[in-house]
Each structure stands twice: as C-alpha cells, then as structure tokens.
From TrEMBL:
GO cellular component: membrane
Gene3D superfamilies in alphabetical order: alpha/beta hydrolase
InterPro entries (alphabetical): AB_hydrolase_fold, AB_hydrolase_sf, Hydrolase_4
Matching Pfam families: Hydrolase_4
UniProt entry keywords in alphabetical sequence: Hydrolase
Superkingdom in the source lineage: Bacteria
Organism: Ramlibacter cellulosilyticus
Protein name, entry field: Alpha/beta fold hydrolase
GO MF entries: hydrolase activity
Serine aminopeptidase S33 domain residues: 76-291
C-alpha cells in the first residue's frame, strides 16, 4: 500500500469520483507517484490516451478534474472521456499525493523524469501505443522536455501557458524580485489569497470567483505549500528545452492576457519546431490557468480539434 504523502491539511472534504487511483515509482521505489485515471466513456469511438500535466502551484486533480456545481463540463477529464479519450493525470513529486520527502526543490528536469516513469506505467495499460500530452505553465515545460527526451512515446503535444526563454515576461520579471526567497528553501507557503493572485495578476475578471474558490479549496485540501523548483528554473535557467529537438506534432496555446510569456518568445519557439504539423492559437479573453477561466470551453474546443485532427494522407 503506498504511503500517504499528502500534507495533512485540515478539512479534507474534496471528493474525487468516477476515476481510478494508480501508483508507480522511480529511483528504485524511493519516489512514489500518484496517477488518476478516467477511462474513455463506453459506447463512444476511442480517440486516444491523454496525459494531463499540472503546473507549479497545484496538484493534478484540482487542475484537470475540478467539478463545480452549476458549471457544466468543469472537469476537463470528464469532458474528454465523454468524447472517447482515455484520460490520465499524475502528481509530480513534491505535489499532492506523490512523495514529498526528498530534500530537493522538485524542478522542471525532475518533473520530466516523473513523466517518463508515469508514461511508461500508462503505456503498459493503454489502448494506444503513444500518448497525447497536454501541459500547462511549468507543466508545459515538463511536457516539452519529456517529448524532447522521449518522442517515441508522444503522438501529439499541446503546450498551454508555455514559456521558452522568458524574454518579455512580466510575470517572471516580478518573480525574479523574490529569487532570494525562492532559493532559500525547497518549498513556499500557499493560501487562498495566493490562488486568487494567479487569476488577478494579469487581467482580473477572466475567471468567476466561485470557480476560484472551488479551485483554491481543492488545491489546499492536498497541499499547504508548493515546491520552489519550477519558480527558480523559470526565473534563472531558461531556456530548458530545445524546439529543434521536439519533432512531434505540437500545439501552442497562449491566453490573450497571459503574462508568463510574450507572443514574440512563443512565435520564435514555434518557428524552430521541425515538425510541420504544428499550430499556434491565441485564446481571446483568457489569462492564465485556462481550464478555470470563463472561456474554458474555447480551450477544450481548440485542444479537441488538435487531438482529433485527421491523419495525413499526403505526402
């Protein structure tokens, strides 16, 4: 039975239903990784297997399986499984239910290693021989690095709120002012006000307060602190991926008001991608954390279209 590595935050009243809990490990069993699986709905043509990769300040289930009363299709995993996708997500080491005991800050490279272990576990059980990978924010960096290292496992790659060099990023510029804080320890405290700051820093009003409240409750049920590694990496170590080595079909999604990366930074990355099955979409009315935005259904539409694109017949 896997060890419970949750933070023990009081008020653990969020229930996740309709899915399956899985565990895998790496480093000879030292690191235990939590995976959450929602199979494709029965009676629907099978479309493929998606691995959703979370960002810097929240675990996997709050990001991708958040049910909010009165908000139809709030769970991305439920929306995609209803359309024939086998859906998986996982907590990176240092987050949620996965191991948190090692004295490291759980950065981007470590996260890509988690994805390598998690993807191997999923592919042993999947109906697909490759995965469709969607990552958001630092999860996009982890997903891109994983695709660079293991292209044979990736059918299609979607990078949401991605950043390449960090040039022209107001969010990262503000974070660099706190580098002494981020490098002083391996974890940083979070609370409800911090979760609200994710939505208010770029363009307030793009997400409903009730959704932010539900998101914050779900996050804080699992964690009261987050690793500092992705912040340190994004502020001081970019670029961490080489677009010329990511030779898989790729979609880049950028919120109209997202401050994590400039359009120029992302276009430069896009131009260097060698695979000619590639798309770049700017999402109007969206800042960061796109699945929690008022226009979340537009995000689903763009991602679904990319993942269900017909196979090429020429050349």
């Amino acid at each position: 039975m896997p060890t419970d590595h949750s933070s023990g935050v009081p008020g653990n009243d969020v229930r996740w239903s309709g899915g399956e809990t899985h565990w895998t490990s790496r480093l000879g069993g030292e690191v235990e990784l939590f995976l959450w699986h929602k199979p494709a709905a029965p009676g629907v043509p099978f479309q493929g297997t998606i691995l959703f990769v979370h960002g810097s300040s929240m675990a996997s289930q709050p990001t991708f399986d958040l049910a909010v009363p009165g908000r139809p299709d709030s769970s991305a995993m439920d929306w995609f499984r209803a359309r024939g996708f086998d859906t998986w997500t996982m907590d990176n080491e240092g987050y949620g239910r996965s191991s948190k005991h090692r004295a490291i800050n759980f950065g981007i490279v470590n996260g890509a290693e988690d994805l390598a272990a998690g993807s191997a576990y999923i592919l042993e059980r999947a109906r697909s021989d490759k995965l469709m990978v969607y990552g958001i924010s630092s999860g996009a960096l982890k997903g891109a690095l994983f695709a660079q290292q293991h292209p044979e496992r990736v059918a299609r790659l979607a990078l949401d709120a991605f950043v390449w060099t960090g040039d022209g990023s107001p969010t990262l510029e503000k974070r660099r002012q706190k580098m002494a804080e981020w490098t002083a320890g391996n974890r940083r405290k979070i609370d409800r006000d911090f979760v609200y700051s994710i939505f208010n820093r770029d363009h307030p009003g793009t997400a409903e307060d009730r959704v932010i409240d539900a998101f914050a409750q779900a996050i804080l049920t699992l964690d009261d602190s987050m690793p500092t590694g992705t912040y340190v990496d994004m502020c001081s170590k970019l670029p961490l991926v080489d677009p010329e080595k990511i030779n898989v079909p790729t979609l880049i999604l950028r919120g109209e008001w997202d401050g994590i990366a400039s359009v120029e930074d992302l276009i430069a990355f896009f131009m260097k991608l060698p695979h000619q099955d590639k798309q770049f979409s700017v999402m109007k009315g969206i800042s960061h954390a796109s699945f929690q935005q008022k226009n979340y259904r537009n995000v689903y539409h763009l991602l679904h279209a990319f993942l269900t694109q017909p196979a090429q017949v020429y050349p």
